[in-house]
From TrEMBL:
Boundaries of every Cadherin domain copy: 73-132, 133-241, 242-346, 347-451, 452-561, 578-682
Record's signal peptide: none
TM region(s), chain numbering: 687-712
Subcellular localization: Cell membrane
Pfam families xref list: Cadherin, Cadherin_2, Cadherin_C_2
Main location: membrane
Source organism per UniProt: Anolis carolinensis
Name assigned to this protein: Protocadherin gamma a1 unspliced isoform
Function: Potential calcium-dependent cell-adhesion protein. May be involved in the establishment and maintenance of specific neuronal connections in the brain.
GO annotation, biological process: cell adhesion; homophilic cell adhesion via plasma membrane adhesion molecules
InterPro entries xrefs: Cadherin-like_dom (IPR002126), Cadherin-like_sf (IPR015919), Cadherin_C (IPR032455), Cadherin_CS (IPR020894), Cadherin_N (IPR013164), Protocadherin/Cadherin-CA (IPR050174)
GO cellular component: plasma membrane
Sorted UniProt keywords: Calcium, Cell adhesion, Cell membrane, Glycoprotein, Membrane, Repeat, Signal, Transmembrane, Transmembrane helix
An MF annotation (GO) of this entry: calcium ion binding
Length: 827
């Protein structure tokens, strides 16, 4: 260490000359030396250079200066990295009589989380002149005082140290007294007047002297006191203290007005010469405020509370003086005993209020400084964290602690912490201080959205209007803000994506699924698709859920009559009922289907109109038309029956068809009867012959075609049972609910034979609808205008001259196949 002394010349201002010494200790401490009383803003040291800190990274948050006490004597210039004087520094006020005056401070480098200590030594300058506590002093000296008698003079006080402190005493020139300067055991100087010439009160009753106290500074400073010597009659005994040194240990928490000590001095004289007065002879300004000395009793009492942390020891010099001016001196040494009257102090020097939940174990959150102004056991502090948070305290340097994480953090479990730190000393009773550090855990996208259910099922009716809300899907994400913002989308389904998007739409924010168009149960019965919930984090996380929509049927399809076929040319189909038939004879069967399902497709048949009521019966659920009694000759040849087919929906829908039944034994009889009804008796007899020939020819051709077609159908049924061209395909109708019978599949093969006879024309046609001879009975596939098979012109000629009236004959031979789970039943 290199010390530099400051030299001041007379008349030059103190602030004009500043010397600074910089030291580097092997422990990493920085030592500066400056004189006291420097002006505010004076340079102390280039701290960034000494610490090795990059000036570009220097900021108020990067480097902090922490000093003890309330007054911040130094400040750091963040532009050039220099340390400057911030407040006036008075060495005597800070360090009092200490030989070495050090101001300690700590430099916190935030980026490195490193603490440097700096000591700034305050060098003394001669800024205080010696002063006396009194300006005037009167000494009453008897005239018979022997030569060599000594008279104690008041001490001058100079708070400076070393050469700048009190160095010498001088007295103004006189004939009676000389000055003798002595040293006390503690090294302080005091002056005594020594009588060297006998005094004669009658010759000279008063002597005026000037006592000068000087220090060794450059320039030297001095203080004076006026001494007036009054020559009196003899007082030959001086007061004597019972002890030269009074020692006492006192607790710092003594109450005010407590008795500290009682000093005692005796004087063998009598009267006024023995009346002793006690006074403080040498006492510091602070001690004079704390202690009070009774001048009569010598009791020293407490005037203000003592503080061990401020001053642990007091040295006071007292004086006992009799009424004639003779005096004695003694010292009082008071040792203040510490009590645990200061709770620990916690200072947060560095703090991070937020930490990410994926921070590694050991992440530093805060830097704390814990101090206790007490000493000994009272000043030993133990720090702890209240509860069991995922943090612990780690001692880093001296009284510094780091708050670090000791296990993984999970914001979804706990998003905020109020870390309570308690510092407790080892005093009796112990004192403690608590501080709370709020800490917020920052979210990371570590949770994917989850649906409440593993899959969702919804039932909706067909024919709902577009835009109807179908189902609301809700996913939750325990993350926060953007990481928890969920977007919904439809990703795939049981149909092609472009078809799925034409049926359904989902609100990306609410998860509500809407119908974009009406559903038709006869087209589609269920829709399966996946909905993806994706959060807004980075990287994005998602999850899928399966949704099944079942379409519920409504009664929106009326029954469709497949047989008899509706006429396309204005003619009415004719069914044959032999007159010899018995009651219960199956005349024909009305076949109808309903594209709906369930009870909406349960069909019932009603006979709403008949030429002769009671002649025929209609099966309520089978649609079979049977004779209810024997046919009579008087029964009308042509019976017209109106059949109503109605489903079981709400409201029910229906369809009707007109069935014409001719009462005849066979086709020739039927034709004959029809001719008798509509043709005059005198028709040519050749007409019947040609008609029979034509009918026989057509019948043979029809039977041949029927057998071939039946063989083909049986072969296909045996190989595939139900292939695309082998069964009845009702568009939009589930096969499980055909003709209203649950579990039964009906295959209808109908072959129609229609003969149209027209009188009054040379053309006659016998029609064979080719389209009706297929194995599919859907109206869409039935030909609207079948191609006829023409008979020879001879037959047309025979029929052409018969009559001018029209006779239409419709011969239908239905063949039904019903298939259930057990086999095939034919009717």
């Amino acid at each position: 260490m290199t010390n530099m002394e400051a030299l001041w010349s007379v008349g030059r201002p103190l602030s004009c000359i500043v010397f600074t010494a910089v030291f580097q200790a092997i422990s990493g401490q920085i030592h500066y030396s400056i004189p006291e009383e420097l002006q505010k803003g004076s340079f102390v040291g280039e701290i960034t250079k000494d610490l090795g800190i990059d000036l570009k990274k220097l900021s108020s948050g990067a480097v902090q200066i922490i000093t003890e006490g309330r007054i911040q004597y130094f400040a750091l210039n963040f532009q050039n990295g220099h340390l400057y004087i911030n407040e006036r520094i008075d060495r005597e006020q800070i360090c009092r009589r200490l030989l070495t005056c050090l101001i300690k401070m700590e430099i916190l480098v935030q980026e490195q989380l490193r603490i440097y200590t700096a000591e700034i030594e305050i060098e003394d300058i001669n800024d205080n002149a010696p002063t006396f506590q009194v300006e005037k002093l009167q000494l009453n000296i008897p005239e018979n005082t022997p030569l060599g008698s000594r008279f104690l003079l008041p001490d001058a006080q100079d708070p400076d140290l070393g050469i700048n402190s009190l160095q010498s005493y001088q007295v103004s020139p006189n004939s009676y007294f000389i000055l003798d300067v002595q040293l006390t055991a503690s090294g302080t100087k005091y002056a005594e007047l020594v009588l060297q010439e006998s005094m004669d009160r009658e010759e000279e009753a008063f002597h005026d002297l000037i006592l000068i106290a000087s220090d060794g500074g450059i320039p030297a400073k001095s203080g004076t006191v006026h001494i007036k010597v009054v020559v009196e009659d003899a007082n030959d005994n001086v007061p004597v203290f019972s002890q030269s040194v009074y020692k006492m240990a006192v607790m710092e928490n003594l109450p005010i007005d407590s008795l500290i000590i009682t000093i005692n001095a005796t004087d063998l004289d009598e009267g006024i010469n023995s009346e002793i007065t006690y006074t403080f002879r040498q006492i510091s300004e602070k001690a004079s405020e704390i202690f009070h000395l009774d001048p009569k009793t010598g009791e020293v009492r407490l005037r203000q509370n003592m503080d061990f942390e401020e001053c642990a020891e007091y040295e006071i010099e007292v004086q006992a003086q009799d009424g004639r001016g003779l005096s004695d001196r003694a010292n009082i040494l008071l040792a203040v005993t510490d009590v645990n009257d200061n709770a620990p102090e916690i200072a947060v020097t560095s703090l991070t209020n937020t930490v990410s939940e994926n921070s590694p174990v050991g992440t530093a959150i805060a830097l704390l400084k814990v101090v206790d102004r007490d000493s000994g056991e009272n000043g030993i502090v133990i720090c702890s964290i209240l509860g069991n948070p995922p943090f612990h305290l780690q001692k880093t340097f001296d009284s510094y602690y780091s708050l670090v994480t000791d296990r993984a953090l999970d914001r979804e479990e706990t998003s905020d912490y109020n870390v309570t730190i308690t510092a407790t000393d080892k005093g009796v009773p112990p004192l403690s201080t608590t501080t709370i550090i709020p800490l917020k855990i920052l979210d990371k996208n570590d949770n994917a959205p989850t649906f409440k259910e593993k899959s969702y099922i919804s039932f909706i009716s067909e024919n709902i209007p577009p835009g109807t809300s179908i189902i609301r899907l809700k996913a939750t994400d325990p993350d926060w803000e953007e990481n928890a913002r969920i977007m919904y989308s439809i990703v795939e389904g049981n149909m092609k994506s472009y078809l799925l998007t034409s049926f359904l739409s989902i609100n990306s924010e609410t998860g509500v699924v809407y119908a974009l168009r009406s559903f038709d149960y006869e087209e589609i019965q269920e829709i399966r698709f996946l909905v993806k919930a994706q959060d807004g984090g980075s990287p994005q996380l998602s999850s899928n859920v399966s949704v099944t929509l079942f379409i519920l049927d409504q009664n929106d399809n009326a029954p469709e009559i497949l047989y008899p076929f509706p006429p396309t040319d204005g003619s009415t189909g004719i069914e044959l009922a032999p007159r010899s038939s018995e009651p219960g004879y199956l005349v024909t069967k009305v076949v109808a289907v309903d594209a709906d399902s369930g009870q909406n497709a349960w069909l019932s048949y009603q006979l709403t109109k008949a030429t002769e009521p009671g002649l025929f019966t209609l099966g309520l659920h089978t649609g079979e038309i049977r004779t209810s009694r024997f046919l009579l000759e008087k029964d009308t040849l042509k019976q017209s029956l109106v059949v109503l087919v109605k489903d079981n929906g709400q409201p029910p829908l229906s369809a009707s068809v007109t069935v014409t039944v001719v009462l005849a034994e066979n086709i020739p009889d039927m034709l004959s009867d029809l001719s008798n009804i509509s043709v005059p008796v005198d028709h040519p007899s050749d007409l019947t012959f040609y008609l029979v020939v034509a009918v026989a020819f057509v019948s043979c051709l029809f039977l041949t075609f029927l057998l071939v077609l039946l063989a083909i159908k049986l072969h296909r049924w045996r190989t595939s049972q139900l292939c695309e061209n082998g069964g009845v395909n009702f568009s939009g109708v589930p096969v499980s609910q055909f003709v209203g019978i649950d579990g039964v599949r009906a295959f209808l093969q109908s072959y129609c034979h229609e003969v149209s006879l027209t009188s009054g024309s040379r053309r006659s046609q016998i029609l064979f609808p080719v389209g009706s001879c297929t194995n599919t009975l859907t109206p869409q596939q039935a030909p609207s205008n079948p191609d006829p098979l023409l008979i020879t012109d001879e037959a047309n000629n025979l029929l052409g001259g018969a009559t001018g009236n029209q006779v239409s004959i419709h011969i239908s031979i239905p063949l039904f196949h019903y298939k259930d789970n057990t086999g095939i039943y034919a009717f």
